[in-house]
Amino acid sequence: MASTGSSSSDDLKDEAAESLRTLLDLYEQHDAAVQEAAERFVNAAAGVVKNPRRGVEGEGLRVLLAMTGGAVGAASGGLTGGLWAAVGATTFCWFRRDVTAVGVTFGLFGGVLGGAVGGAVSGLVGGTVEASAAAAGWSVRNVSVNALWFAAGFVTGGAIGGAFGGSVGSATGAIGGGLGALQAAYVTTSLIRKVVYFCPPEKAPEETSVLTEKLTLMRKSGEDLRGSLVPLVEQLESVQNICSKTGALSVAGRTARTLTAVTSMEERLSDSWTAADLMQFVSRLIEAMRGCEETLDELKKTRAEVERRLSSWRPTANQQQ
Known about the structure:
It is elongated, with a radius of gyration of 31 Å. It folds into 2 domains: 2-53 and 203-320, Four Helix Bundle (Hemerythrin (Met), subunit A); 59-197, no CATH class. It is 89% helix and 0% strand. Helix 2 packs across helix 4 and helix 3 (101-136) packs across helix 4 (143-197). It has helices at 2-50, 59-95, 101-136, 143-197, 205-246, 249-272, 278-320.
């Protein structure tokens, strides 16, 4: 019985070794194609990522988008600022039982008014600026700019809230105005970017031609990369299955990580083409590029692990002979 078990184990190990050798053969056959396709995709994607600017054509349309951004910013900032100020004033008065009914009334009124006006004013200015930038193909959103809009809403809301609602109105109006300004900037930028994405781009004919060429090359190289990985993926799945049975857990674990990397890369490639706007497209493109690099790295590690495992099995085979 022991001899039968040993023979079965040896047969399984021989099958695993054969599967590993097949995988190495496939590496030799497809490695150049995989590397070339990945390099072409990364280079083409890098060209798009380096120059993602996309503005709209026509001064009139830009002005219209800027005015729309200002209106949206004012409405969004005013509504959000008023709501946050109302929540803040209600909470403040709830914990401060010593505030009189008159103080509560004026504090709530002043806070809501300050938050609404602060959010609306800063939202109007911020929305106009950010919409103008988005229409021109630029992005001005960063921590410093966000801090600027918040400060503008905070100061405006606090001043108006304090004038009508005392300390309660000042504090809650400032908070509402600041948060309203941030919300206005976010809503405006998101909306205008989506509009710009569907507008005719402001690009010279030769620039548009180059971009189209890069996008075509990127899609083609992505498809080539997927195609060159198909036989490797099929064999990796086979290797993972047989190595799990033989106890070669290091190889099984490594192939599992490689398969996960390939799946993740393919998902990122697909996601990049379903972006809602240009900035999201660029962001997903960067993720797809990172996924390509991770996949190539995992393939190298798996190949090294397979070679190491085969070399450790060979002496045993020689001894048996």
